[in-house]
Design brief:
The protein is of the alpha/beta class. It has a single domain, classed as Rossmann fold (3-Layer(aba) Sandwich). Helices cover about 35% and strands about 25% of the residues. The strands form two sheets. The protein has an eight-stranded mixed sheet, sandwiched between helices. Strands 5-6 form a two-stranded antiparallel ribbon. Strand 3, helix 1 and strand 4 form a beta-alpha-beta unit. The longest helix has 19 residues. InterPro entries: AB_hydrolase_fold (IPR029058), Esterase-like (IPR000801), Mycobacterial_A85_antigen (IPR050583). Keywords: Membrane, Transmembrane, Transmembrane helix. It comes from Oribacterium parvum ACB1. This is Esterase.
Length: about 220
Amino acid sequence: MHREDFTLCNHKLSLFQAEKADCPLIVFHSFSDEGEAVYQELRKQNAAECNFLSIAIHDWQREMSPWPAAALSKDGEDFSGGADAYLESLLSAILPWATERIHGKASFIGIAGYSLAGLFALYALYKTDVFTRVASMSGSLWFPGIKEFCKENAMKILPEKLYLSIGDKESKTRHPILQTMQENTEDLLKYFKSMGIETTYEVNPGNHFQDVNLRCAKGILELLQ
C-alpha cells in the first residue's frame, strides 16, 4: 500500500493506492482526518483490496448539505446548501486527480460517508452517474426535505449496491427533527428496495457517536463484496 497526500480545491486528500491494477476506488468523506483510521479498520477486517480516497471536509454544514436548512440548536451552525458546488469540484478536479494515480482503471467507483457525508453520498446519486455503489452510514436522513426529494426525483444511475445503517439509539432523542432519522431511513430503505436496488440495512448498537470508524468500515466492506 502506498499513501499519497495532497491538497486540492482547499481539501486535504489522502489516497491509499492498491498494489494491484484495476481495483475499485472508494471515495470517503470525513469530518476531519479520520480516513486513515477507517482504512486501517478495513485492513483489520480483511477487506478486498481497493483504492481508498479520503477527503477531509472542513466546511461540513455547507459542503455536505444539499440545500439550506436551519441549525439543529441555538448554538449550532445553519446548513447553507453547498453540496452541488462541492460535487462539481469533486467531479471536475478531485476524482480526475485520484484516477490518474491508481494502477489501471477502477473496476467501479463507490462513495461512502458518515452522518452528513452519508446524506451527501446518497444525494450524489441524483446528480451524477459516476458512483455505482453507495454506503450511507448513520446518514443524516432526518435532513428536512430529503425523503421527499429522494422519492420525487430520478437517480442518474441505479446503484449496483446500496448500504444504509443507523445506531439503535440515534432516534431516541428529545429533538423533534432527529427523532425522524430511523423512520426516514427505513421508509427510504423500502422505497429503494421497491426500485429493485440491492440494499443492505444494518442497525448498530449505540448512539450517533459510537464505533464510528468500525461502522464506516462495515459499510465499505459491503460495497467491496
